[in-house]
Amino acid sequence: MTASDWLHENFDPAGSSIGFRIKRKLDEVQSPFQKIEIYASTDWGNVMLIDGAMMVTTRDNFLYHEMMSHPALFTHPDPKNVVIIGGGDCGTLREVLRHPGVAKAVQCDIDEQVTRMAEKYFPELCESNGDPRAEVLFDDGIAWMKNAAPGSLDVVIVDSTDPVGPAEGLFNKAFFESCFRALKDDGILVQQSESPLVLLDLIKEMRAEMGKAGFTTFQTLPFPQPCYPTGWWSCTLARKGQGFDFREADARAKDFATKYYSADIHKGAQSLPPFVSEALA
Amino acid sequence: MTASDWLHENFDPAGSSIGFRIKRKLDEVQSPFQKIEIYASTDWGNVMLIDGAMMVTTRDNFLYHEMMSHPALFTHPDPKNVVIIGGGDCGTLREVLRHPGVAKAVQCDIDEQVTRMAEKYFPELCESNGDPRAEVLFDDGIAWMKNAAPGSLDVVIVDSTDPVGPAEGLFNKAFFESCFRALKDDGILVQQSESPLVLLDLIKEMRAEMGKAGFTTFQTLPFPQPCYPTGWWSCTLARKGQGFDFREADARAKDFATKYYSADIHKGAQSLPPFVSEALA
């Protein structure tokens, strides 16, 4: 590989492609679940791929990790017990632990190798793994959620790969029923929900499955994410009761820095473009 | 070329790449200014490239064209005379002419072949070219603006390619001085300003050049745009006076449909993420 090689992810479901200019391959491991590759890029720092799909770059992961955590945590009235299903790169865990009110954050990813690679090539994402409030598990998130004590959780964050392979079981009614049971009455579920430009059907289907599991209110928040197909991504929040009461004053007064998230960005993301809101209506 | 071919634009300045799955090449023309290619894609309709850079797809051009036109036109108090420099695909012209108050919209693109290709492969973008308020010119936009009557224009839209090749002269003080002189006192200049994620320096430099030309207030609005590098793009507004008074009530009451633009999207875009606002401060 030369200094001018380009690494592309050709994303079949959308017929679109994302790529980065690569300096060299740094590592590759075949775990029991998936193939993990690490490249050094010219402009985006390190890049992690799982089964050929871009997962994380040093430069742009803050967009995804901030939006997977802070909107849900600043919507829940008082999040203390948080669980992350997936999220093996530990970036979402780090953001969750920025909230001083969080008493415990469990991260349950099936693949230990993702975290081992993150520790080596994205150490900044793992800097809070030693926090006494953090518990980093390598286990089946579907089983973990099934066995969770009913009404024990405030926020469940599903930080998964695409709904194929190991993550397929994280997008259906059975899993969402486990989440529903494990959440307290005012609990919030948030899940990465792919590109609102080309995968609106997936978002609709996910919301429908969440609805069958008992969730009654949904909120899809778009955000930019260059390393994912189309460069525009989303997370979807679900809760048992009605409405999402954004704790705007607390978000404005937060005592930690963010690069993308802000109270205004959070408010803005709640207004969907007409073509998205019409499709989800 | 087979049905499974992928066409990539490897964007050197950002070290990132965008691509689409292509069915076949439909056309190619070498104009006096640039090479224009048209492809049929599997999922994005037709795709136009200029000198190898993605310009327009059938599926996602509404994002760019709506954001290049409606925010500026709903900020100016009463836009009557509008000029588009570049914009040869005619999509911005179509959006401008949706505003019933616009009395005249001139489109001045140096390359007639861009419009000829758009008429053939993106006819929906050209559907307003016959509007009696429209004037479609093929001429040098820099010279046109230099010769424009002082204080004659309400809104100038610079809908250009990247600041290399034919568009290079559209990003400097001399051109902005011509715009400043041609605009009325309450006039607004809006220009496409590349990716806020990787080309923040370019946005800063553009705003500095606009400032040297006399403009005093700036507003950069980000929006998603999958066919451009990083999938996240921006336009930058500039005016002579202070502040941008968004005519929110008029935007809410608009009598034409938009797919991405709305009063709420416009408001949301005015809140920049911290890493962008800090860089532009």
TrEMBL record, chains A, B:
<dbReference type="InterPro" id="IPR001045">
    <property type="entry name" value="Spermi_synthase"/>
</dbReference>
<feature type="binding site">
    <location>
        <position position="34"/>
    </location>
    <ligand>
        <name>S-methyl-5'-thioadenosine</name>
    </ligand>
</feature>
<feature type="binding site">
    <location>
        <begin position="140"/>
        <end position="141"/>
    </location>
    <ligand>
        <name>S-methyl-5'-thioadenosine</name>
    </ligand>
</feature>
<comment type="similarity">
    <text>Belongs to the spermidine/spermine synthase family.</text>
</comment>
<dbReference type="InterPro" id="IPR037163">
    <property type="entry name" value="Spermidine_synt_N_sf"/>
</dbReference>
<comment type="subunit">
    <text>Homodimer or homotetramer.</text>
</comment>
<dbReference type="Pfam" id="PF01564">
    <property type="entry name" value="Spermine_synth"/>
</dbReference>
<comment type="pathway">
    <text>Amine and polyamine biosynthesis; spermidine biosynthesis; spermidine from putrescine: step 1/1.</text>
</comment>
<comment type="function">
    <text>Catalyzes the irreversible transfer of a propylamine group from the amino donor S-adenosylmethioninamine (decarboxy-AdoMet) to putrescine (1,4-diaminobutane) to yield spermidine.</text>
</comment>
<dbReference type="InterPro" id="IPR035246">
    <property type="entry name" value="Spermidine_synt_N"/>
</dbReference>
<dbReference type="InterPro" id="IPR029063">
    <property type="entry name" value="SAM-dependent_MTases_sf"/>
</dbReference>
<keyword id="KW-0808">Transferase</keyword>
<feature type="binding site">
    <location>
        <position position="89"/>
    </location>
    <ligand>
        <name>spermidine</name>
    </ligand>
</feature>
<dbReference type="InterPro" id="IPR030373">
    <property type="entry name" value="PABS_CS"/>
</dbReference>
<dbReference type="GO" id="GO:0005829">
    <property type="term" value="C:cytosol"/>
</dbReference>
<feature type="active site" description="Proton acceptor">
    <location>
        <position position="159"/>
    </location>
</feature>
<keyword id="KW-0620">Polyamine biosynthesis</keyword>
<feature type="binding site">
    <location>
        <begin position="159"/>
        <end position="162"/>
    </location>
    <ligand>
        <name>spermidine</name>
    </ligand>
</feature>
<dbReference type="InterPro" id="IPR030374">
    <property type="entry name" value="PABS"/>
</dbReference>
<dbReference type="GO" id="GO:0004766">
    <property type="term" value="F:spermidine synthase activity"/>
</dbReference>
<protein>
    <recommendedName>
        <fullName>Polyamine aminopropyltransferase</fullName>
        <ecNumber>2.5.1.16</ecNumber>
    </recommendedName>
</protein>
<dbReference type="GO" id="GO:0008295">
    <property type="term" value="P:spermidine biosynthetic process"/>
</dbReference>
<dbReference type="Pfam" id="PF17284">
    <property type="entry name" value="Spermine_synt_N"/>
</dbReference>
<feature type="binding site">
    <location>
        <position position="65"/>
    </location>
    <ligand>
        <name>spermidine</name>
    </ligand>
</feature>
<keyword id="KW-0745">Spermidine biosynthesis</keyword>
<feature type="binding site">
    <location>
        <position position="109"/>
    </location>
    <ligand>
        <name>S-methyl-5'-thioadenosine</name>
    </ligand>
</feature>
<feature type="domain" description="PABS">
    <location>
        <begin position="9"/>
        <end position="240"/>
    </location>
</feature>
<feature type="binding site">
    <location>
        <position position="166"/>
    </location>
    <ligand>
        <name>S-methyl-5'-thioadenosine</name>
    </ligand>
</feature>
